[in-house]
Design goal:
The complex is a heterodimer of chains A (about 600) and B (about 425).
Chain A (H helix, E strand, L loop, with lengths): L1 H22 L30 H9 L3 H14 L5 H14 L9 H18 L20 H8 L5 H13 L3 H13 L6 H13 L5 H17 L6 H11 L7 H13 L6 H11 L12 H9 L14 H12 L2 H11 L11 H18 L2 H11 L8 H13 L6 H10 L6 H13 L4 H24 L7 H13 L3 H14 L5 H14 L2 H13 L5 H11 L4 H17 L4 H5 L3
Helix pairs in contact in A: 2-3, 2-4, 4-6, 4-7, 7-8, 7-9, 8-9, 9-10, 9-11, 11-12, 11-13, 12-13, 13-15, 15-16, 15-17, 17-18, 17-19, 19-21, 21-22, 21-23, 22-23, 23-24, 23-25, 25-26, 25-27, 26-27, 26-28
Chain B lengths: L24 H10 L9 H10 L7 H18 L5 H11 L48 H13 L4 H25 L20 H5 L22 H5 L16 H5 L11 H13 L7 H11 L11 H11 L2 H4 L7 H4 L16 H5 L13 H14 L6 H17 L1 H7 L5
The chains are: A mainly alpha (about 600), B mainly alpha (about 425).
């Protein structure tokens, strides 16, 4: 746990240092490393070449200065110099990739604010559909932007120009324009490359107001055109098709399988991302409907023992979706298979970033708690937590329930100790669960003592939480449980203090609790305590008050003033209670 | 005349099949044959009833076509999966003339679950699926079906034996196909202790070949299927199933694999960004110190081991070529470009000379006298040159050459001072 945060801290320190060095390069010129280590020297982000020339333009393009490049280009045109086709294409590349915005720099903490700036910039300019979480944060392609303008200004355009424009349009969600440009490209008898076709496939799927069948037919048309133009499809072609088919829901299932078979038939090996899309398509809903697909088994059979290398940026989503399916199907065997695949070769690198890894392991461990024997589960618990992932409080609750089912409640204090280390000290649901499990049944004395200690610990956490917050954190049930546990372990003093807490936080004790207290009072032979209990019940106007009073009368010998006090009490309660006939006569 | 009534266990009655007219045994047989294993079952009583109400069995074509049409409509509406074989059978029946036949047609009894028939694939279905209606259709071709088929064959004017065998084959395929679909649709609930003696043998090909495209149905089964238990063995039979079946048939293998002579342009911005994204897929935080050191070595912050002395030289050479001024205009490049890689010739000097050529320069002193001050001097020169890291071997040899020429020119002066040459 600490190593993880340590690594993160190191990385962020590194980023901060790099940021400072690159922001003020003139202070960091001294180079004492021999041989020279370029990494330690500041990077130069400002263009050095002054003046209006094509070389300057190329430099700015290289440095990814969008605005500067556009300005330079305009200046060049105004000066009358022609810009070579290649440079113009490079400029178009830059513009289309960045969507006419300045690209964000590589620093994580800067990216956030820059991204927000981008968002604000685009928000006012176009009516944007719902925001897409992603790099560009909703950068859309505006008509008549710089890219289009420059495209129009170029005296000659080759296939690359059209291609890059199409790709840019699709990337920034202007599918119809992309398709129109494609027809223009065909009209000029140029040939698109495979990447452009991939973008066009995405474009056809993005077009709104079309039925799935139509879209699918359009995609097939595009593929046929690929054949006609002698363009070889690659892995990304098929992955893009599958990605788009995901949106087609049930309709997309058959085409997806056909696509997969086509891929295999022409010898392109599917990557993990391929299978991820297929899984997502076939298992779109969380809860398995009747007759959910069995395709996951086919997939796992196919993948067993294979080692993968990254071929698609979405490759790291496979394991997460596979484990999600295992979890919803409640199939532990399959989960083991998936986990084996993860541990084959270097596949563990495909687990993805932190949140995805956590998701995977939470689902896996939850499934283990549900389906596996308790000893094996505990072994996995020791292995996985906390070295591989940090458990969510829900995970721990699952584990507790598994312990409950397997009747190993003696491990609960240990789990509580662990939970505190994982930062769940102030989790209400977790503490509730723990207390409930401990207090539910009677246990042998040693265990009861251990439980009472644990309960005391939890109580202290509640109290410290109370001290920090204004809103009271106690829940009635927790008070109940803690009191019961104290009683059963023989810590009567503290138990009685709990009663005071009931009144203080205005929570109502349960009937069983009061009975237990009565029992304890009887055992210790103290009628004063018993009267306390009855007073408490009366203060809350509980219906059990009568039975308590009767029990009191039966079990204890009371002095006269105690009886009078009792009488007042019962008189009070009898006024408010419904069945009051007998009580009036009592204690008088 | 009427079929023998056999005792039947309670079944889900088929209320939806409105065989209203002309219930010839053939159509009854057709219904029986075509009935989906899941739903459309008919009790004996129904048949009885139908026979009761429709006394006349006509052999007219149009009347006959009506019930078959209704049959086919019913089957279409009731089945969510259609088989071409079924259609074929119906078509056969449609073109048929029917006469009354006294064949003993019985609908199948609700199958005894443990019964294994020898004719077709023997699948034993789990008994404990209580919520499902027990299947009317037996797992394999029961003798009654065979009898029905033979009855049909008899009534057809065609070659009886061939028709019968054809019908039987169709039935078998249909059986296997429908069972395959049903099995395929079972969600996985592994109660393996309950399902202990399951055997499955089926062929997947019959099913997958005959799927009409317009059906919105995926290969793996039906959606409205009630949850079924599934034996673990069944899963193994699905191996490679997703890869068998119809494909798009758009691309040709030959066309894709032949290497078109594409001119490789310099990687565009798109390619670079894609490569970066791809590299980011496999990024994981360091698992141990070794990985950290690997990363640092890649960045150039750590030297490579075993340490290569000449790694310095190349760095100097490359940076010497680009003055510090222009270093600013270069975009930052990964360090590995500047520093040397491990075992390539670029480790060494530009002309590929090794360290011993730099240090052991005695061989160039052969022309000089072996003794005397000249020798001393030249030895000092070679000593100094050997320690000089900034000159190439060629330059050092040139130095020595220069000295040789110099002393040769100044021979006369040296002779006067009495220094020997050889």
């Amino acid at each position: 746990m600490e190593s993880h945060s340590f690594l993160l801290a190191k990385k962020s320190g590194e980023n901060a240092a790099k940021f400072v060095i690159n922001s003020y390069p003139k202070y960091f010129q001294k180079d004492i490393a021999e041989p020279h280590i370029p990494c330690f020297m500041p990077e130069y982000f400002e263009p050095q070449i002054e003046g209006i020339s094509e070389a300057a333009l190329q430099e700015r393009i290289k440095l990814r200065k969008v605005k500067a490049s556009v300005d330079m280009f305009d200046q060049l045109l105004q000066a009358g110099t022609t810009v070579s086709l290649e440079t113009a294409n490079r400029l178009l590349d830059l513009l289309c990739y960045c969507g006419n915005q300045e690209p964000s720099t590589n620093y994580n903490f800067q990216q956030r604010e820059q991204a927000e700036e981008l968002e604000e910039a685009t928000e006012g300019n176009n009516e944007k559909p719902k925001k897409k979480a992603g790099h560009q944060l909703g950068v859309t392609w505006r008509a008549k932007n710089n890219a289009e303008r420059i495209f129009a200004l170029m005296p000659e355009k080759n296939a690359h120009s059209y291609c890059t424009m199409i790709r840019g349009m699709v990337k920034h969600r202007a599918p119809t324009q992309a398709l129109n440009l494609y027809t223009e490209l065909l009209n000029n008898r140029l040939r698109a490359d495979v990447h452009t076709f991939n973008s066009l496939i995405e474009a056809t799927a993005l077009v709104v107001n079309e039925k799935f069948e139509e879209k699918w037919n359009n995609i097939l048309d595009l593929l046929k055109q690929m054949v006609a133009q002698n363009v070889k499809p690659n892995l990304q072609t098929f992955n893009t098709i599958l990605k788009c088919l995901r949106r087609f829901h049930a309709f997309g299932k058959l085409p997806a399988l056909q696509t997969l078979r086509e891929m295999k038939a022409i010898g392109i090996e599917p990557s993990l991302a391929t299978y991820h899309y297929i899984i997502q398509l076939f298992y779109q809903h969380e809860s398995p409907s009747k007759g959910s697909s069995l395709i996951i088994y086919d997939i796992m059979n196919e993948l067993m023992g294979k080692k993968f290398s990254p071929k698609d940026p979405d490759d790291d989503m496979f394991f997460q979706s596979a484990m999600r399916v295992c979890s919803s199907l409640r199939d532990l065997e399959l989960a083991y298979q998936v986990h084996d695949l993860l541990n084959t070769g270097e596949n563990r690198k495909f687990i993805g970033p932190d949140h995805r890894r956590n998701f995977y392991y939470s689902k896996f461990f939850g499934l283990l708690c549900l389906m596996e024997q308790i000893d094996v589960t505990l072994k996995w618990y020791k292995d996985l937590i906390p070295s591989v992932f940090f458990p969510h409080s829900q995970t721990l609750i699952d584990l507790l329930q598994a312990l409950d089912v397997a009747n190993r409640l003696e491990l609960i204090p240990q789990i509580w100790k662990d939970s505190k280390e994982y930062g769940h000290t102030f989790r209400h649901d977790l503490k509730e669960e723990i207390l409930m499990l401990m207090a539910r049944d009677r246990h042998p004395p040693e265990l009861q003592v251990a439980f009472a200690d644990c309960a005391a610990d939890i109580k202290s956490t509640y109290e410290s939480q109370d001290a920090r917050q204004t809103a009271p954190s106690w829940l009635a049930s927790s008070l109940n449980y803690i009191a019961v546990l104290f009683l059963r372990a023989g810590r009567t003093q503290e138990a009685w203090k709990m009663l005071g807490l009931f009144r203080k936080h205005n929570k109502i004790p349960r009937n069983e609790l009061l009975n237990e207290f009565m029992g304890s009072a009887k055992a210790s032979g103290s009628p004063a305590q018993a009267i306390e209990i009855v007073k408490l019940a009366g203060a809350f106007s509980l219906p059990i008050c009568e039975s308590l009073t009767q029990r009191l009368m039966a079990d204890f010998t009371l002095s006269q003033e105690q009886k009078e006090a009792l009488g007042d009490l019962t008189a009070l309660t009898s006024d408010s209670s419904s069945d009051s006939d007998n009580d009036v006569g009592e204690g008088k | 005349m009427f079929p023998r009534v056999s005792a039947l266990l309670p079944l889900r009655p088929l209320s939806r099949l409105p065989l209203c007219s002309g219930g010839p045994e053939v159509s009854a047989a057709a219904v029986v044959l075509l009935a989906s294993p899941r739903g459309t079952v008919r009790t004996k009583n129904n048949i009885q009833r139908y026979f009761g109400t429709n006394g006349v069995i006509c052999s007219k074509k149009d009347e006959h076509s009506v019930p078959t049409r209704e049959i086919s409509k019913e089957t279409e509406s009731q089945h969510s999966v259609k088989e071409n074989t079924k259609k074929d059978l119906v078509n056969i029946l449609k073109g048929m003339k029917v006469e009354l036949s006294t064949v003993n047609v019985q609908t199948t009894k609700p199958p005894n679950r443990r019964q294994l028939k020898s004719l077709a694939a023997s699948t034993v279905r789990p008994q404990n699926a209580p919520e499902d209606a027990p299947q009317k259709r037996s797992e394999s071709l029961s003798p009654e079906l065979v009898a029905a088929a033979s009855a049909v064959a008899d009534s057809l004017p065609l070659d009886k034996q061939m028709t019968k065998s054809e019908l039987l084959r169709q039935l078998q395929q249909h059986e296997e196909g429908s069972r395959a679909q049903k099995d395929g649709a079972r969600p996985k609930i592994s109660f393996t202790d309950i399902i202990s003696d399951m055997k499955v043998a089926r062929s997947a090909t019959a099913r997958v070949n005959t799927r009409p495209v317009h059906q919105i149905q995926f290969d793996e089964g039906t959606d409205d299927f009630v949850g079924r238990e599934k034996p673990a063995d069944l899963r193994r039979s699905f191996r490679k199933n997703i890869f068998k079946g119809k494909r798009l048939n758009i691309f040709e293998l030959k066309a894709v694999t032949e290497e078109a002579p594409e001119t490789e342009a310099a990687p565009s911005l798109w390619d670079i960004e894609f490569a970066k994204k791809l590299a980011a897929v496999n990024e994981q935080p360091f698992q141990n110190g070794f990985e950290e050191m690997i990363q640092l070595t890649k960045e150039g912050k750590l030297w490579e081991f075993p340490i290569n002395n000449e790694a310095v030289v190349t760095a100097h050479v490359t940076t010497a070529q680009y003055p510090r001024q222009a270093a600013g205009s270069r975009i930052f490049q990964p360090c590995s470009d500047a520093t040397s890689s491990t075992c390539t010739p670029s480790c060494f000097d530009d002309d590929g000379s090794e360290f011993h050529e730099h240090i052991f320069l005695d061989k160039y002193l052969e022309d000089f006298p072996k003794q005397g001050p000249i020798r001393h001097f030249m030895e000092l020169v070679t000593c100094g040159l050997s320690k000089n890291p900034y000159l190439s071997v060629k330059q050092k040899v040139e130095h020595i050459e220069w000295f040789r020429n110099y002393f040769n020119e100044k021979r006369d002066i040296l002779k006067e001072s009495g220094i020997q040459f050889n």
